[in-house]
Write a structure and sequence with these properties.
- The structure is a single chain.
- This protein is of the alpha+beta class.
- It is about 30% helix and about 30% strand.
- The strands form three sheets. Strands 1, 2, 3, 6 and 9 form a five-stranded antiparallel sheet that branches. Strands 7-8-10 form a three-stranded mixed sheet, with no helix packed on it.
- Strand 7 and strand 8 form a beta hairpin.
Length: about 190
């Protein structure tokens, strides 16, 4: 009788372990799927830039871009190098090829028939070397949340702009912009 009870208890422990392993595999598999689903709209995250716009906004056309940036501000952005470019058209350069361009040139090259530009305003550490982490989540029908994670703490808080180029958003889409400061010193 004792051996039957111990086998049953071992069996239960084995079943519990197997259950947790299966749940773990399901979560790992689903998390990759969900991450890809949330990232599928992001075409390119832009580097941190000096404050040239004063409010967060979705820009859907060249006219909107020109109304937000003066020629002087666009020239200022032409001094910020980027190593990534927009996906090439079928008749243009090889897909995936990277060429060095400036942020100003990149903004001028946006095809607003395919893409939307999200520009946000942050009020924390304006450091050139800060690497921002961008996330775009769809939180409802035509509602998105653009979250930028800022690492560390800053001795000199200041305003700055951040942005990303995404697949064309519907005209009625609403985007909520949010910055999150991630303190890396725990």
């Amino acid at each position: 009788m004792k051996s039957f009870l111990s086998i049953t208890m071992r069996g239960k422990a084995l079943l519990r372990s197997l259950f947790f392993v299966c749940i773990t595999f399901i979560f790992i598999g689903c998390s990759d799927y969900l991450s890809d689903t949330f990232r599928q709209n992001i075409v390119m995250a832009l580097p941190q830039m000096p404050a040239v716009v004063s409010s967060s906004q979705v820009i859907r056309s060249y006219e909107e871009l020109e109304s937000q940036l003066t020629p002087e501000e666009l020239e200022l952005l032409k001094e910020i190098p980027v190593t990534q470019s927009l996906p090439a058209e079928e008749n243009e350069e090889e897909e995936g090829a990277e060429r060095a361009v400036t942020l100003g040139q990149l903004l001028e090259d946006i095809d607003f028939e395919k893409y939307s530009l999200l520009l946000g305003v942050g009020y924390y550490g304006n450091h050139k070397d800060t690497i921002l982490t961008h996330s775009l989540l769809q939180t409802g029908a035509n509602v998105y949340e653009y979250v930028v994670f800022i690492p560390g703490m800053s001795a000199e808080p200041d305003s700055f702009n951040y942005g990303m180029i995404v697949q064309k958003l519907p005209p009625a889409a609403k985007v909520n912009f949010r910055t999150v400061i991630r303190n890396e010193f725990k």
